[in-house]
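Throughout this chapter, every protein is written as a compact record of paired, labelled lines. The reader may check this reading against the record printed directly beneath this paragraph:
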Amino acid sequence: MSICYGNFPRGLVSVLLVMGASMSIAEAGDQAEKYGGENRGKPVQPSQVNAKFQQECSSCHIGYSPGLLPAASWRKVMGGLDKHFGSDASLTDQENKEITTFLVNNASNRWRAPTAPLRITETAWFKRKHNSHEIPPTVWKNPKVKSPANCAACHQQAERGDFNENNIKIPK
């Protein structure tokens, strides 16, 4: 008996089956299709976090999980740190290279969309999960939330790369 797993590599199928993945192979394919080829892959947060990344990136905001964006996005973000969303977040060439390498090596491994957004909040999957039917617009105006970029305001385990819907607590 032969089972068809679509375009998924045999190795990925084995890993998913061995790990007892909570998302079926068909669901993973549907997710990529539903979000125009945007599929974060798993895990979004690598098991080993780079100390320089934690130190530099977490000094102003959470160290966003590298798996939330494709490598091309991280290259663009790191290439424009002198104008990093309105701030100068410049690093030494060595620091920039180290952090860029970490982000690129741990970026989404299944991104098939032709896009490389600079902001996680610009991705189709983010917009779909955080639309006005899911999240009332008043949430973004809450001073404890401030903006969609403040993941940790609602996702209690965001710094660990855990965005499970069961762990969300929207501030009052």
Q: What stands out?
A: The longest helix spans residues 93-105. The chain is about 35% helix and 0% strand. Helices lie at 10-19, 25-34, 51-57, 71-79, 93-105, 124-129, 138-141.
